[in-house]
Design goal:
Number of strands: 0
Order of helices and strands: HHHHH
Structural class: mainly alpha
Helix content: over 70%
Shape: globular
Number of domains: 1
Radius of gyration: 16 Å
Strand content: under 5%
Length: about 120
């Protein structure tokens, strides 16, 4: 239950930062390219990569800290970072086919689900 609390707090912080980025770009960029999403995804991937590398290099065993920062904060900030980390781990373990399948199916299923949801709502 303690880990759920850490994920909850981290997710709230990540989501709040994601909102702040969206707010900033909405005020300063207009409605052209989706810069807020692009920046959040890039930053989220950078942060989760830094954390993953740090945890591995320093053999960090604190599961609560890992969950707070990765599942909570990065997950609240952008789930794209989790997808990217999982694919990186596939590549790191030389599971290239799984990385390709996971990336492709995630994108295709995601687009189809958005389309289905849109159609169902009309």
């Amino acid at each position: 239950m303690r880990n759920v609390f850490f994920i909850f707090i981290g997710g709230g912080l990540g989501s709040t930062l994601r909102y702040a980025i969206s707010y900033f770009f909405a005020k300063n960029q207009g409605n052209q390219f989706p810069w807020a999403t692009f920046v959040a995804n890039g930053l989220g991937c950078l942060v989760i990569g830094l954390l993953f590398g740090y945890f591995q290099k320093n053999n960090v065993q604190n599961d609560s800290l890992k969950l707070f920062l990765t599942v909570g904060f990065c997950g609240g900030f952008t789930t794209f970072s989790a997808l990217s980390l999982e694919n990186f781990q596939f590549i790191q373990n030389q599971h290239y086919n799984l990385a390709t399948i996971y990336t492709t199916t995630s994108l295709v299923i995601g687009l189809l689900a958005v389309y289905a949801g849109f159609k169902l709502s009309n």
